[in-house]
Write a structure and sequence with these properties.
The strands form four sheets. An eight-stranded mixed β-barrel has the order 1-2-4-5-6-7-8-9, surrounded by four helices. A hairpin with a 3-residue loop joins strand 2 (55-62) and strand 3 (66-67). It is of the alpha/beta class. The protein contains twelve helices and 18 strands.
Length: 372
């Protein structure tokens, strides 16, 4: 046996039985991990951390049955190990609105938790294949946009067949999202992942469901190899600009920055939108915006940038609801979320001085934004 093959063989055994004698990173710049759910039962976390793994991805829940019954317990236990944490939501939705609801539900499960690994939407329900590649990709991107806007690194989990026939992997990656690829070279025995290389198609490859490791005795476990080191650097190209849509009769909100991406909804003319990111693509300038709970991209070539207004007097201070020193779309969103019950933060934005915070105050702020 050659030296290279010997190291690969030892590394494979180390991963499968949890030996610590050899570091994966010392052989190749990869990290190993597992994903778990309630199916793994009670886990001995002290034993788990002795395995040759760097990360664990938790099932947060499913569209149909809600939160995984072991999710909270698993998160607490995993937090004590020092291993990096990620999460996924098994999504069985087949409508755009339900994908949106799944994203919002997922964010509730993630709230207050520290995830160093990406968080994923898991797609593998037969009914979703009937949507077709374009529609399913659009719906998935719409969900990921919402999750990403909340500050998480996110992506899609599925298998080779799905990424070939039902999900446009190229568009997912071009939009900046992660691919977690499931493909098992063998269904009857564990394999050495270093005998294969999936780094050209994914960030993380789930290469086996036959893992036997210390700390998990109730069932086998899925084994993963990461070709990237997470957490990834946060996007620093964020902006906060107010734009007035001028397109007639409306402007398409797409699931990604480009004409190749499907439409999520429309933005009506004379609507002021807050742009949080700008990209150039296919000869257009695209802005990332939020409309009616959806997050997507619209062509700013059909909109006019509004000047940000510095705070000048006491009346302006009342309109600067979020206290960032400017009156813009962010202040309108603060009032809207409060009025819809999406925020319980008390506001002192009685812009018109009638003793209450209501839609009239929102209109007053909007007028200030439009006037610049």
């Amino acid at each position: 046996m050659s030296g290279k093959k010997f190291i690969s063989a030892v590394l494979s055994i180390a991963m499968l039985i949890g030996a610590q004698s050899l570091s994966a990173d010392s052989v190749r710049a990869v990290e190993y991990g597992i994903d778990i759910s309630s199916y793994q039962g009670n886990i001995n976390w002290d034993e788990l951390k002795t395995n040759n793994i760097s990360f664990v991805i938790l099932r947060a829940g499913t569209s149909k049955y809600g939160i995984d019954k072991k999710y909270e317990e698993n998160y607490i236990g995993l937090s004590k190990t020092g291993l990096k944490k990620g999460a996924y939501l098994f999504c069985s939705s087949v409508t755009l609105e339900d994908f949106k609801k799944d994203a919002e539900t997922f964010l509730k499960y993630l709230d207050g938790k520290n995830m160093e690994m990406p968080v994923y939407i898991d797609l593998e329900t037969n009914a979703q294949t009937e949507l077709g590649k374009e529609k399913l990709t659009t719906y998935a991107l719409a969900a990921m946009n919402i999750i990403s806007e909340a500050g998480y690194t996110t992506g899609i989990y599925s298998n080779k067949n799905w990424f070939t026939n039902y999900i446009d992997r190229e568009l997912i990656e071009a939009a900046g999202y992660e691919i977690w690829w499931a493909q098992y070279p063998s269904m009857v025995k564990p394999v050495n992942p270093l005998d294969y290389d999936k780094s050209d198609v994914c960030g993380i490859w789930q290469y086996s469901s036959l893992g036997l490791i210390k700390g998990i005795t109730q069932s086998t476990v899925d084994l993963n190899i990461a070709y990237k080191t997470y957490p990834q650097e946060v996007n620093k190209n964020k902006v906060s600009e107010s734009w007035l849509v001028t397109a007639q009769p409306n402007l398409r909100l797409r699931c990604g920055p480009g004409l190749r991406y499907g439409q999520i909804t429309s933005v009506q003319p004379n609507t002021v939108v807050n742009v949080t990111e700008i990209k150039e693509s296919e000869g257009y300038k695209w802005g990332r915006v939020s409309i009616d709970g959806y997050v997507g991209w619209c062509a700013l070539d059909f909109a006019v940038k509004l000047p940000s207004q510095n705070i000048k007097d006491e009346a302006d201070k009342k309109a600067d609801v979020n206290g960032d020193g400017f009156i813009n779309m962010n202040d309108l969103l603060e009032i809207k979320n409060y009025l819809l019950g999406k925020s319980d933060n008390p506001l002192s934005a009685d812009v018109n001085g009638d003793g209450a915070v209501n839609i009239l105050d929102s209109l007053a702020v909007k007028m200030k934004v439009l006037k610049g």
